[in-house]
Amino acid sequence: MAATALLTPCTKILQVASGWGATARYLARAYGAEITATNIEHDHLVSAAKLSKMAGLERLISHTYADFHDLTFYVNQFDVWWCQEATVHAHGKRQVFREAQRVLKPGGCIIFSDQTTVRDKCSEVECERLAARHGSNDLYSWDDFMSALQDAGFIKTRSTDWGEYMAMHFANLARRIEDNYDELVCDIPEETIVYNFTLWRFGQELALRHAIGWSCFIGYKPI
């Protein structure tokens, strides 16, 4: 993703749904880019800020609250809008992309990776389960994501298909739970472990029959 976005030390990145800040710290170390890492989870922001300071990266990374549906930043402020595996949780994905377009500088790029859903290959029950996991009922396909980007005003939109890695990824997660089960139950409620294990097996099954995919999307704000 970083290579695709052509990051440099002069790049100003807005990362949404930044979690514990691991990606922000990687981008700061590897590229010297300036990152505004945002999240709606206060605990995540506090922990991420502490970790960035411990890493000596607080000069390059700022951690702040922001809802990607309604950003509080100025127009034309960032070179790159960055997100990984989080737009599936948005209640209004088109609004998220409109906000991304607003805060990007002319010529700036939006880049994100996320799961895609082929609804015709999923049963009604499977769609309901996916929606419950995402917390959003609009299960976007590849076409839906591309259409939403173009409707938001992005041009030169394209994507890279990473779908072949989906089943492998979910299988690996499930296997790691199995291999470390006795250790995990010492610290985590068993029902949480079982829930995640069944969820990853469910994802693996859908990925093997190409009912869900994974893609990296990029587009540009017109100059």
Which labels suit this protein?
alpha/beta, 8 helices, globular, 41% helix, seven-stranded mixed sheet, single chain
Describe the structure.
It is a single chain. By secondary structure, the protein is α/β, with parallel strands linked by helices. The protein is built from eight helices and seven strands; from the N terminus they run E-H-E-H-E-E-H-E-H-H-E-H-H-H-E. It has helices at 22-31, 42-54, 93-103, 124-134, 142-151, 166-179, 181-184, 190-208; strands at residues 12-15, 34-39, 61-65, 78-84, 104-117, 155-161, 212-220. The chain has a seven-stranded mixed sheet with strand order 3-2-1-4-5-7-6. Strand 1 (12-15), helix 1 and strand 2 form a beta-alpha-beta unit. Helix 3 packs across helix 5 and helix 6 packs antiparallel against helix 8 (190-208). It starts with 11 loop residues before the first strand and ends with a strand. The relative contact order is 0.14. The mean pLDDT is 96.
Q: Secondary-structure map with pairings?
A:
Blueprint: E1 12-15, H1 22-31, E2 34-39, H2 42-54, E3 61-65, E4 78-84, H3 93-103, E5 104-117, H4 124-134, H5 142-151, E6 155-161, H6 166-179, H7 181-184, H8 190-208, E7 212-220
Parallel strand pairs: 1-2, 1-4, 2-3, 4-5
Antiparallel strand pairs: 5-7, 6-7
Helix pairs in contact: 3-5, 6-8
- Spans of at least 5 consecutive residues whose pLDDT stays below 50 are none
Please tally the β strands and state the result.
Answer: 7
Largest sheet: 7 strands, mixed
Count of helical stretches: 8
Determine Rg (CA atoms, Å).
Answer: 18 Å
Main β-sheet, spatial strand arrangement: 3-2-1-4-5-7-6
Helix and strand pattern: EHEHEEHEHHEHHHE
Q: Assess the beta-strand content as a share of residues.
A: 15-25%
**SS content category:** alpha/beta
Give average pLDDT, whole number.
Answer: 96
What's the helical proportion of residues?
40-55%
From the spread of the alpha carbons, the general shape counts as globular
N/C terminus separation: 22 Å
